[in-house]
Amino acid sequence: MSAAVPGTPARRGLLHDARRIAALAWPLFFGQLAVLAFSTVDTVMTARHSAVDLAALAVGGAVYITVFVGFMGVILAIGPIAGQLFGAGKLQEAGRQLHQAIWLALFMSVLGCTVLLFPQPFLALSHAEGEVAEKVRGYLHALAFALPSALLFTAFRGFNTAVSRPKIVMALQFGALVLKVPLNAVLVFGADLGPLHVPAFGAQGCGIATAMVMGCQLFAAWEVLRRDPFYARFGLASGSLALPDRASLMGLLHLGVPMGLSIGIEVTGFTFMAFFIARLGPTPVAGHQIAVNMVSVMFMMPLALANATSTLVAQRIGADDARDAARIGWHGLQVGVIIASAMGAVVYLTRQSLMHAYTHDEVIIAAAMPLLAWVLLFHIADAVQTITAFTLRAYKIATVPVLIYAGSLWGVGLGGGYVLAFNLTGQSPPALQGALGFWAASTTGLTLAASCLASFLIWMLRQRSSR
Do the Cβ atoms of 203 and 56 come closer than 8 Å? Predict the structure, then answer.
């Protein structure tokens, strides 16, 4: 990988841009780790409670992530839009985008809560029945109360990232995590708190704790907007909400819908694996859940780099500095590949000991270990496709990634995994049947997506530099 895109002169080197990206990426990384720790805490505590609850958490978590992430992607269109306005010095216009993103989040909440309250299609897809299905319903009903707060906080997060102020978001995310851990423990395992007896809710307790914490986090974010003088120059310090603006909402939707579709395809290409693997029984899906959580922790680093790179690129586009924007995008990709390669190698070599941090159940560990054989290639491909997709969004290019994701992640990854795992052709090798077939196909699909997106980004930057 060259130091700069051909045709784009590099006025500064990789190390200089890596520092610029790192300054924005590190609070994003730790904030995202705090968010992911929610599911990690859920997974660890539920795994120690019962295998049935862990299976319910895997299915219910896949449903919630499918709903939340798709709508989150639409709302996060505020990032490239507000970032370009911020780079151009149009601060009041950037602030107005947050108001419109809030209205969008409220509308998306109505749709999302409806899905969570009536999850029967997902239960049918995963063949969840009996006690597992009942626990999935309880978990999702609790999360229906968490979704509005989570989507509204997404608008706050997207705006702060766009204006290079991620530290306040990180602080609120860590505050939420500090509150989440003890609440989770009480609600999952039960407790006697003086005269109050709290029953053991298992997986449902994770959802109840998340709903309570998300509400507190949203309230804290609103207070920050009202009281912090930083937001006065964006017209946000009054605490009042502007009326919906059709033009701004359409601008958010024009970029946000394909962004949401891309993220939705990316996530469902992975989360739907849980639905299909659940058909194999509680042990395979429990092992899959642990493996998913581990690679999700790893994914936080390229995701932070992608957010930081995209933000800086959008700001430089707004400032009408096309060369700097192109160079930052390319250098962000290089940094991501270097870090992902190192992280993937370390996790692969230490995967046995890492498994025991989740559970001491050797049966579940045996189900999870073969899945992580793909972790190195999986993580590098995941980093490339994420950073390139985010960089393209900074240029307000979101439709092409939808097509690439649909073919590679749904077609090759999910479709190919289904064929391998359930041996539909009768030709699947025994080693690639079951959960491992899904992981092998998913890794192949991710690699294809990464190659196509990176190639398109290079082509696009060359086209722009030749104008």
Answer: yes
